Amino acid sequence: MSADTEPVSGAQFEIAAHGYRAVIASIGASLRVLAFEGRDLVVPFEADEVRPGYRGTTLAPWPNRIVDGRYSFAGVEHQLALTEPGRSQALHGLLSWADFRPRVVEADRVVLVAVIPPQDGYPFRVEVSSEYALDADGLQQTVTARNLGADAAPWGTGPHPYLVAGAGHVDDWTFALPASEVLTVTPDRLSPVAVEPVTDHPEWDFRSAREIGDVFIDHAFTSLSYEEGISEVRLTTADGTGVAMRWDEACPWVQVHTADTGVDATHRIGLAVEPMTCPPDAFNSGVDLVVLEPGASHEASWRIAAL
């Protein structure tokens, strides 16, 4: 496909198996469509439109925010571009608008690859591969980073799907989130403040499944419960159908956002669930930050499945 005929969201890779269908767009290695037997499990977007925000993209080399875009690593101060200018933050990494290239394309699996070049604020060369694979248990995405440079590099990753339980909006759905702590943030810039028990913030305590209602959420959660090494969130309609997202202990954090856009067409139409290898501003706090040594690799994965 030539550049003048390629859709706005990039090359399209459709995979299907076991009743599932997914379409991945090359810009940002973005999950554009995921459906089970014709039912959407994530909020989709059109191939020939600029992806709405970060919907479905791959977050790397950090998820969430770096406060003021500034951090120190190995004794060197760095300043990143402020990609969330309204809050003066560096948001969601460097690859969301990169054009990933295919390494593997199969009927039920695709692997897309991009390289982060050394640049102002992140002078490290890291290869990032994003694999999407379908099986009877849903769609699994695996993100692998490999440090191609001569110096150690800070690293974090996560996805950004907006889950859909069924008809209606976020307010109508029941949510189960096995997290006993939440990272509080400032109201204006969403900068991290402190990790606190959800018992101190009952509006964000979803350890027992309950309807979301009009609760606003744009927070990272941790102290997750795992069963046989897997943590799971569930989002369901009144009749019990819905969607689950699962991940292992490579992601000890999960960001949840109720998509409060204030725009009728997009307001609270899906629930962002973003398993993360580290919390917001980890480049400064160092909490759960991955340090990729030269030649080293790191892998994290998560799965979305129909209920």
Strand content: 35-45%
Major sheet: arrangement of strands = 10-11-12-13-27-23-22-17-20
| Rg for CA atoms | 18 Å
Number of helices: 1
Distance between the termini: 36 Å
Structural class: mainly beta
What sequence of helices (H) and strands (E) makes up the elements?
EEEEEEEEEEEEEEEEEEEEEEEEEHEE
Give start-end ranges of low-pLDDT stretches: none
Oligomer: single chain
Helix content: under 10%
Q: In this structure, how is the largest beta sheet organized? A: 9 strands, antiparallel
Tell me, what's the shape? globular
Return the average pLDDT rounded to an integer.
Answer: 97
The total count of strands amounts to: 27
How are the SSEs placed, and which strands pair?
Blueprint: E1 12-17, E2 20-25, E3 30-36, E4 39-40, E5 58-59, E6 65-67, E7 70-73, E8 76-79, E9 89-91, E10 101-105, E11 109-116, E12 126-135, E13 138-147, E14 153-155, E15 158-159, E16 162-163, E17 174-176, E18 179-185, E19 192-197, E20 210-211, E21 218-224, E22 231-236, E23 242-247, E24 253-257, E25 271-276, H1 282-285, E26 290-292, E27 297-306
Antiparallel strand pairs: 1-2, 2-3, 3-4, 5-15, 6-9, 7-8, 10-11, 11-12, 12-13, 13-27, 14-26, 16-25, 17-20, 17-22, 18-19, 18-21, 21-24, 22-23, 23-27, 24-25
List keywords for this structure.
307 residues; 1 helix; 1% helix; 45% strand
Describe the structure in your own words.
The chain is mainly beta and 307 residues long. Helix content is 1%, strand content 45%. The strands form seven sheets. The protein has a nine-stranded antiparallel sheet with strand order 10-11-12-13-27-23-22-17-20, with no helix packed on it. The radius of gyration is 18 Å and the shape is globular.
